[in-house]
């Protein structure tokens, strides 16, 4: 049981090892992505691999070099280039435009050749006009469509065959090729049987049309990364030593170089202001709508808008690693990752193509043995076409892309699709208190010094030790010392005990500040209690509303705190959390134990160093954006630091996304479940292949359209929230 418990809480932990992203070209269906991912994942030197057909990104964690990974991708018949985040927006848009143009050309050329032939065939049939050249014309016209629209499907199917596997294009290629070749044989041997030249051409033309529409809609559904990267320019104004300015690519900027920012410009890179004073709109990062005054010495964040003054900033990061680029990578990583529910689709797809091929063969032989070979060929071809599981391959990633994109537009960053799905199932949220539900800036309301000790000496020793601590309580002590103009003294042998206190040697005295059951903390000098500290923190302005929003969603809300029971329950009551749902006096180890034993439906929200272990252990860990680096690295979701209400927003987005995933899977599975028997039993007739092509395209568009509906609905909610 303990082993299972440990494994259960490793859902959102990223595999260890260097990570690299590659833009893959040449993939035409979800089967291409699945096959490439399987090949990479089976490599013993690869710890983790994820390939997305929608974004065209392969994420690989391995001990291999980029060159080795690209060679492996090329061995599968695709091409790949390393992903550079600073130019990712243009590359992503170009790739999506190229894919859309390719399918558009195939669709329009295929339709322009097939439709006249189909109309001519209908007219001839209606007039009972059967000239001897008609079949030859149909053969030549449909053959042209195969040459124009067919190579993409045939190449993909051939690559799969070389890898001893099959994909969705295998079914399309087999359907079109078998329809055309069987018709050619019937025509050559002058056998009295129906011909399917028109159906072969119509299949490729209609499927290409479906892929064109699907590509166009998918591009809109997955616009989040492009929108983010559009917030930073590709070229910047670099100021030289002589004061002249030069336009250079953002990707070429290195730390230390100086950039000129004019009013109305977006800050292109993270940096420090050297000269100037202006108000910056930092809402893209912080979620705070009001501009913030920044001047010389202040840090600035890429993506912020300079509203009034002119600034000269010094870059503190490379142009390829700005805050916007890092956020975009997180969003893209989430969109390219695989949710656990995807395993259902993968398991179905793994046996689907072989099963369909078997059904098609059985249909052909069954009808032929019954004396109706024509119906057998039509039924077999229709089965191959109508059962193509493209919709199944798109069901999960399209919804994940819509959900993660909508979250990013609210300033909520999701590291993986797994976190999105688990959050969609959540029934319990556990908050840390200090810095999460509260503002994290406690104030000293009482310093009770025991007889025999001097107040100023106690403050000097305590503040000197606390100066080396990152805990909010340390800042409260230092504020008192600063206000009373008490100088600090050098500290030696400093030690921090996360969640417990700090210790150090000051002026020959061993000073320890630790949690205490009688007060917020006590100060010990050389092992003797010298004073007690009483601290008070303020609840975040939106904390009570956030808790109420979660309760309205039917979610149980609890709180963990290292503070005393009285202080913790007081804050909990103010936030609207029941006293029985509060765990006080909790050390980091106790928090870790509680989260390790929590159900899979639990979510942990925290911000401090002492929350990092609990955030990692939780099924879903949410870090407040203003928290420490350790907490942000441990969490699977990051929310804006000034909006604790974003927790409810994230959980609602997760629920909506999971609902659409289930709808998409239902639509895809039910479609194939109903369509295959109709096709196999010949109930669609001789026009079955054409009907199948239309139905397959519609099934893809249904899944994509349902995901686009989710995107629009979530975006409307985002607009309402911002307004």
How would you describe this structure to a colleague?
The chain is of the alpha+beta class and 723 residues long. Among the domains are: 77 residues, Alpha-Beta Plaits (2-Layer Sandwich), CATH 3.30.70.100; 89 residues, Calcium-transporting ATPase, cytoplasmic transduction domain A (Distorted Sandwich), CATH 2.70.150.10; 111 residues, Rossmann fold (3-Layer(aba) Sandwich); 94 residues, Calcium-transporting ATPase, cytoplasmic domain N (3-Layer(aba) Sandwich). It contains 24 helices and 26 strands. The chain has a seven-stranded mixed sheet. The protein has a six-stranded antiparallel sheet with strand order 6-5-7-13-8-11, with no helix packed on it. Strands 16-21-20-19-18-17 form a six-stranded antiparallel sheet, with helices on one face. β5 and β6 form a beta hairpin. The protein is elongated, with a radius of gyration of 32 Å.
Q: What is the terminal separation in angstroms? A: 49 Å
> What's the CATH class label of the domain at 424-438 and 540-635?
Alpha Beta
Number of strands: 26
Count of helical segments? 24
Shape: elongated
Briefly note the CATH topology name of the domain at 424-438 and 540-635: Rossmann fold
CATH architecture term of the domain at 424-438 and 540-635:
3-Layer(aba) Sandwich
Task: Please name the fourth-level CATH homologous superfamily of the domain at 424-438 and 540-635.
Answer: HAD superfamily/HAD-like
Strand content: 15-25%
Radius of gyration: 32 Å
User: What is the arithmetic mean of pLDDT?
Assistant: 80
What structural class results from the helix and strand content? alpha+beta
Low-pLDDT runs: 1-17, 85-89
Largest sheet, strands/sense/barrel: 7 strands, mixed
Strand order of the largest sheet: 14-26-25-24-15-22-23
Q: Report the helical percentage.
A: 40-55%
